[in-house]
Predict the 3D structure of the following.
Amino acid sequence: MGLFDQVLGALSGHPAGGNNALLESVLQLVNNPKTGGLGGLVQSFERGGLGNIVNSWVSTGQNLPISPEQIQSVLGNPVLQGLAEKLGISSEKIADSLATVLPQVVDHLTPNGQLPQNDALLSQGLDLLKGKLFG
């Protein structure tokens, strides 16, 4: 099963999952230049005391799970509420959805076990993922 199929499979089996808007929101979250993109997101988790979890997503080994409460503690209510409003779901559901989807997206954006050094490479990967999903 390929990268895109795995992400799609993870989304389709989740409450907010069949919704392409969820994946689009996650991709925007990991590619947000205001927060430092994927590297900034990883640093946010590290600063929040969850470095071992987020680094497992980046590495080539098994992904450690994360709880919706841990997602909320790192991303904060304003981010979660904004995503929830955009998707028309509750903040609790978005935290639950992110706990399922975010580890897989980060894992698949770092197939060699390290963060991309070139932002253009990450953008290309995200564009490819969007193209596969959205036509």
Notes: Residues 1-6, 13-18 have pLDDT under 50 and may be disordered. Residues 3-134 form a domain with the Arc Repressor Mutant, subunit A fold (CATH 1.10.10.690). The chain is about 70% helix and 0% strand.
